[in-house]
UniProtKB/TrEMBL annotation:
Residues 111-207, 208-332 form the Cytosolic endo-beta-N-acetylglucosaminidase TIM barrel domain. It comes from Sesamum angustifolium. Belongs to the glycosyl hydrolase 85 family. GO terms for molecular function: mannosyl-glycoprotein endo-beta-N-acetylglucosaminidase activity. Its EC number is 3.2.1.96. Residues 520-639 form the Cytosolic endo-beta-N-acetylglucosaminidase C-terminal domain. This is mannosyl-glycoprotein endo-beta-N-acetylglucosaminidase. It is found in: Cytoplasm, Cytosol. Pfam families: Glyco_hydro_85, Ig_ENGASE1_C. It is an enzyme of class 3 (hydrolase).
Length: 642
């Protein structure tokens, strides 16, 4: 039997609409069937029918017992592809210190995150402070809550465990509990079914809703989540009762502040301080309060401020990166919250709405800076052991004027030998050395600088470095300015060049690999790509709409290490043009990104005169590299009636 993490808990309250899931189901069905949801009531949700892939819970024990979920059209799309890092498997691997569990509990669950292939809401709720979390729980008021794969993939990337929820509420829940626990055999059967679901979908276990008589359960499971209506001395008393298992006691905190010690909200840290002082763990309910209540001035600023309270009270609990290759497009940086950000000369933010360098977020640095001044901002806190091979570090930057951006690496050894290395931007090496040599152990100029024609304005900086036996502990961005050789001369008729002036730079991505490493992608002929559930409908002016599931796998059956695939389509006017390289000059349309080897396309408009569609599966590796489109696997589909 596969292992399951069992964490006992007390029922959490609801903070949003229960209809979110039904809305997603109705919307998906309406899109698939081409109906006007405003005019026609959508048909009942049929999990077997092809539709826009969604995540959804199980509402009855019958669904669980019959294993109906595994027959669902949506099942393969919900499988998380990112595993926990080595050593992060079971409950026994939990860190031996007070921990932070975060219970999602946001608006009833399955809102924007219920759309497995992504959505159109650029303002959707998100968490990017994974370095402050040990365990993430996805919660809804349904019998069995299955975490959407976007949460599992992201959490696992940062070493955070993910739990689904088993909860039985009110009179209906009592009946379900009676059935589940009617015999030892039935309890064992349902436990195995839950374990099967967790393993199949790639998450790490379950939160169990129990009653107040929970000490016997605590003795038989991996932890207990205490309701948030506790008083100041409760953490200490709980620690005394738990004895050497006090770290497995999670004291609940409701961020909405209802009946919670310290009041939650902007004083959540009051409860965190007491919990940490008494040596037990924390269970934070509903950090989405910031989002749901529209805290000013905007979500990103308020979110960073609130999580800044957690970091100040608890400190960081995760390190990233830990292994090579390391690649980030800044979906999840470790940015610090500086308190009153207006007092800082440079404002640092992560932008997800403007065009990014490689599909993630941009870290934007904007403000004023003097010629001789520097500003640094934390990007990552790592625990990366550097071997004997040289490191190859690349990062993309876009800047204006004389604004420059470099990287600072902080390292240490097992004997606490600390070093700071500055990877400077391209420029005058002598002036750079003069400015920074007293601040850093080593200053390194880039070995190669590339202007990226495909990405106007972006520059790729490349540096090699040897740090044998060191551990990379921190990566910081360094903002500074270029200056002319005679910048030290100031005359009466010239302004002081050191006076602050406008600074602007954007960091697009960063990659750290062992020098000489190149990603070898399987050739397109190594893949089998199929089209399934093909459906054509007629549109205006002779056009057609296509819905189809594209699925792919390696022919030899080997398990590949790829977990990201960009999907494109070429709309061709003749079959003879399929293999012409000039068809890949930018005429392809981007459709979406897949984290599994399947993608469902709904109602793709195909104009009259198009004879075939070439769907291209661009394979991307963990180091950020992507296969050339002309070398990628593809699926050719003739247009019906063409």
């Amino acid at each position: 039997m596969s292992p399951v993490v069992l964490l006992a808990g007390i029922k959490a309250h609801h903070h949003g609409s229960f209809s979110a899931l039904e809305d997603i189901r109705d919307s998906a069905m309406a899109q698939t069937n081409g109906t006007d949801s405003a005019a026609d009531p959508p048909p009942p949700f049929d999990p077997l029918a092809p539709a826009v892939p969604i995540s959804y819970p199980l509402k009855t024990l019958e669904e669980l017992e019959t294993r109906a979920y595994f027959k669902s059209f949506h099942f393969p799309f919900n499988q998380a592809g990112v595993k926990l890092p080595a050593g992060g498997g079971g409950a026994e691997a939990m860190p031996q210190r007070p921990r932070v569990l975060v219970c999602h509990d946001m608006a009833g669950g399955y809102t924007d995150d219920g759309f497995v292939q992504g959505g159109t809401n650029a303002d959707a709720y998100a968490i990017w402070h994974w370095y402050l979390i040990d365990v993430f729980v996805y919660f809804s008021h349904n019998l069995v809550t299955l975490p959407p794969p976007c949460w599992t993939n992201t959490a696992h990337t940062h070493g955070v465990k993910v739990l689904g929820t088993l909860i039985m509420e009110w009179d209906g829940g009592r009946k379900e509990a009676d059935k589940l626990l009617s015999t030892k055999t039935s309890a064992q059967m349902y436990a195995e079914l839950l374990a099967e679901l967790a393993v199949a979908l790639g998450f790490d276990g379950w939160l169990n809703q129990l009653n107040d008589l929970n000490k016997p359960f605590f003795d038989r499971c991996d932890g207990i989540l205490v309701n948030y209506s506790w008083e100041e001395n409760f953490p200490k008393l709980s620690a005394e009762v738990a004895g050497d298992r006090k770290l497995d006691v999670y004291m609940g905190i409701d961020v909405f502040g209802r009946g919670t010690y310290g009041g939650g909200q902007w004083t959540t840290n009051v409860a965190l301080d007491v919990i940490k002082k008494d040596g037990v763990s924390a269970g934070i309910f509903a950090p989405g309060w910031v989002y749901e209540t529209n805290q000013p001035p905007d979500f990103q600023t308020a979110q960073n401020r609130w999580w800044g309270l957690v970091e100040k009270s608890w400190g960081t609990v995760q390190s990233y990166p830990k292994v090579l290759p390391f690649y980030s497009n800044f979906d999840q940086p470790f940015l610090e919250y500086p308190g009153d950000s207006t007092a800082q000369p440079i404002q640092v933010s992560v932008g997800f709405k403007e065009a990014s360098y490689s599909g993630g977020g941009n870290v934007t640095f904007r403000g004023t800076l003097g010629d001789n001044a520097e500003f640094t901002a934390r990007l990552f806190l790592g625990e990366l052991l550097l071997g004997n091979s040289p490191l190859h570090i690349t990062y993309s930057v876009k800047s204006s004027g004389n604004s420059l951006l470099g990287l600072a690496l902080a390292t240490s050894t097992t004997t606490n030998d600390k070093k700071t290395v500055f990877l400077a931007a391209s420029g005058n090496a002598l002036l750079t050395m003069n400015q920074f040599s007293s601040h850093f152990t080593q200053v390194i100029m880039p070995c190669r600088v590339t202007m990226l024609e495909a990405q106007p304005g972006w520059i790729m900086q490349e540096t090699s470095i040897e740090m044998h036996g060191h551990i990379l502990k921190e990566i910081r961005a360094v903002c500074y300015r270029s200056k002319p050789k005679n910048s030290h001369a100031v005359t009466d008729d010239k302004p002081d060049s050191s006076a602050p002036s406008e600074y602007y730079a954007v960091l697009g991505d960063i990659k750290i690999t062992t020098s000489g490493e190149n990603t070898n992608f399987p050739p397109s002929t190594a893949w089998t790509v199929d089209g399934q559930f093909v459906s054509w409908t007629s549109g205006p002016k002779g056009s057609k709409n296509l819905s189809v599931k594209i699925a792919w796998h390696l022919k030899d059956g080997n398990v590949d290490l790829f977990s990201k695939y960009n999907i494109y389509v070429n709309k061709l006017t003749s079959v003879s043009s399929v293999y012409q390289s000039e068809m890949l000059d930018g005429s392809q349309e981007y459709i979406g990104v897949a984290a599994v080897k399947s993608f469902y396309i709904s109602d793709l408009e195909v104009a009259s005169g198009i004879s075939s569609l070439k769907f291209i599966i661009q394979v991307c590796s963990p180091d950020g590299a992507c296969q050339k489109l002309e070398e990628s696997p593809f699926f050719l589909l003739p247009v019906q009636g063409a």
